[in-house]
Amino acid sequence: MAEFEIEREEGGKGGRYVARIDGAEAEMTWTASESVDVIDHTFVPPELRGRSLGKALVWRAVEDARRSGRKILPICSFAAAQFRRHADWRDVLPG
After folding, report:
1. Which helix (H) or strand (E) holds 43?
2. Which H or E run includes 71?
């Protein structure tokens, strides 16, 4: 989907997905509960906007959730909007 690498960093009860380009970072953070990852924040710095980085970060979380059998609750307004736009991602939303 993207021409940049997205890394998943875990720590404690959550973590983040991050893309680093030219010294700048775009990130999406999440907190984990038993079977649900709550996406609570997405940020793309101005110099990286227009490259679909935010969408790519959410897409990566969707793909990881599918592989692991987890669900995603997007409370971040950007992530929630992406889920509304992509009906094919709704399989990872909680019941």
Report:
1. strand 36-43
2. strand 71-74
Question: Which tens digit of pLDDT belongs to each residue from 32-59?
Answer: 998 999 999 999 999 999 999 999 999 9
The whole domain housing 80 covers 6-90
Count helices and strands (H / E) in the chain: 2, 5
CATH of the domain at 42: 3.40.630.30
- Within a domain: 95: no
All residues at 6 or more sequence positions from 69 whose CB lies less than 8 Å from its CB, including other chains: 35
User: Does the pTM exceed 0.85?
Assistant: yes
Distance CA 77, CA 69 (A): 23
Give CA angle at 17 (12, 31), nearest 5°. Answer: 40
Query: What total number of domains does the chain contain?
Result: 1
**CA–CA distance, 43 with 49 (Å, rounded to integer):** 10
